[in-house]
Automatic annotation (TrEMBL):
It catalyses: L-histidinol + 2 NAD(+) + H2O = L-histidine + 2 NADH + 3 H(+). The keyword Metal-binding applies. This is Histidinol dehydrogenase. It comes from Effusibacillus dendaii. Substrate binds at S229, Q251, H254, H320, D353, E407, H412. Its cofactor is Zn(2+). Belongs to the histidinol dehydrogenase family. Its EC number is 1.1.1.23. Catalyzes the sequential NAD-dependent oxidations of L-histidinol to L-histidinaldehyde and then to L-histidine. NCBIfam families: hisD. The gene is hisD. GO terms for cellular component: cytosol. It is an enzyme of class 1 (oxidoreductase). Pfam families: Histidinol_dh. Binds 1 zinc ion per subunit.
Length: 427
């Protein structure tokens, strides 16, 4: 089912490349409806797309306690430990404001402050993603964001999945709403009677959510426009083909446009992994989705050596890169384009998705060439501070005037010149 090709013959199959003009028009109309009609439009869209008639979107407080009775103690215990791991990892990313003082008494600095209000979109409805809550909320909390609001689609009874509710409760999120889709993004960006607007929107969603985030960018900040998930495994002859196949399928089951690629100099590993894929696919509940992903965008690329495999990985710039080779450290230093790198046999990608502490919101579709995982910096803003001394202005004022005049900005030059003249008159 999966194609096996030599590196020289590999041509990547990109995700469906289309303008989404029809979907974009729908989203823009929905955003305008929310801006004009507020909660009334939210109610209409929730009735239309989620099949439930809600008049109060805020998740009632009493449902949080009840949610603990609907999940297993093992889930709650694992969730709490994951929270500790994720928080510890992100606390190491904290930055501090700084000041630079020179001999003339001038102070230059950078003030680092959290955003004041952030919206987190958590997909829902037919699926549940408590891990999305953790990965988006925790770095915002570590950054010091005082107001974090979560939106998530309700099911047809107007309920939210208990796993998501428990995650919200464990993180102390008090403001959460049963609303999803492009209408939720619009409400976060522009506000309604029930939902106050935010400064930034983070979190994954379907194409309508992605297009809505793109449309409101500029009114608010966003972290990224996420594409289909992908994984690339670089492995040598020492890798276990069953492990490799399982890791490829861990991303293939996300969706038919997900991409799973093995790059290896070992023909034996290539053939055995292809066989293991067939065997494991037959047992997957999401077999049809994973099979379509493997068939349409999956590949096993055979290279001449590991150096070529690393070169191929850097060219593809995967969201997740697994390095399963006998001596990984020398090769690790040569990887420059990857959202996250998982080193060794036991660093399977789901470890990062759920538990170890790194963030699973990663750059997709080759954007790891210039983008980073979601992190604490995404919830901070930097402000420059200038306290220029009289001594410094007198010493450098003429230089500033010369630069301003070279650009034809006489008022800029005059703002400095008038100070120099007044100081000169005092003498």
């Amino acid at each position: 089912m999966i194609r096996i090709v030599a590196a020289k013959d590999f041509t990547p199959v990109s995700a469906v490349d289309q303008s989404y003009e029809k979907e974009r028009d729908i989203v823009l109309d929905m955003i305008n409806q929310i801006r004009q009609h507020g909660d009334a439009a939210l109610q209409a869209f929730t009735r239309r797309f989620d099949g439930v008639d809600l008049t109060d979107f805020r998740i009632p407080q009493h449902v949080y306690a009840a949610a603990y009775q609907q999940v297993t103690p093992q889930f709650t215990e694992a969730l709490r430990e994951a929270i500790q791991n994720i928080r510890r990892y992100h606390e190491a990313q904290r930055r501090q404001s700084y000041m630079l003082l020179d001999e003339h008494g001038t102070t230059l600095g950078q003030l680092i402050r959290p955003l004041q209000r952030v919206g987190v979109y958590v997909p829902g409805g037919t699926a549940a993603y408590p891990s999305t809550v953790l990965m988006n909320v925790i770095p915002a909390q570590v950054a010091g964001v005082p107001e974090i609001v979560v939106v998530t689609p309700p099911d047809k009874e107007g309920n939210v999945h208990p796993g998501v509710l428990v995650a919200l409760q464990e993180l102390g999120i008090q403001e959460a709403y049963r609303v999803g889709g492009a209408q939720a993004v619009a409400a976060l960006a522009y506000g309604t009677e029930s939902i106050r607007p935010v400064d930034k929107i983070v979190g994954p969603g379907n194409i309508y959510v992605a297009l809505a985030k793109q449309a409101v960018f500029g009114k608010v900040s966003i972290e990224s426009i996420a594409g289909p998930s992908d994984i690339l495994v670089v492995a040598d002859d020492t890798a276990d083909p069953e492990y490799v196949a399982a890791d490829l399928l861990s991303q293939a089951e996300h969706g038919e446009l997900s991409q799973a690629i093995l790059v290896t100099p070992s023909s034996r590993l290539a053939e055995q992994t292809a066989y293991a894929l067939e065997q494991q696919l037959a047992r997957l509940p999401r077999q049809e989705i994973a099979a379509a992903s493997i068939r349409n965008r999956g590949a096993i690329i055979i290279t001449s050596d590991l150096a070529e495999a690393i070169e191929m990985a850097n060219r593809i710039a995967p969201e997740h890169l697994e390095l399963i080779v006998e001596e990984p450290d020398p090769w690790l230093a040569r990887i420059v384009n990857a959202g996250a790198i998982f080193v060794g046999t036991y660093s399977t990608e789901p470890v990062g998705d759920y538990f170890c502490g790194t963030n699973h919101v990663l750059p997709t579709e080759g954007t790891a060439r210039f983008s980073s995982p979601l992190n604490v910096d995404d919830f901070l803003k930097k402000t420059s501070l200038v306290r220029y001394s009289k001594t410094a202005l007198l010493q450098h004022g003429e230089k500033i005037i010369a630069l301003a005049e070279s650009e034809g900005l006489e008022a800029h030059a005059n703002a400095v010149r008038i100070r120099l003249q007044k100081e000169d008159d005092k003498l």
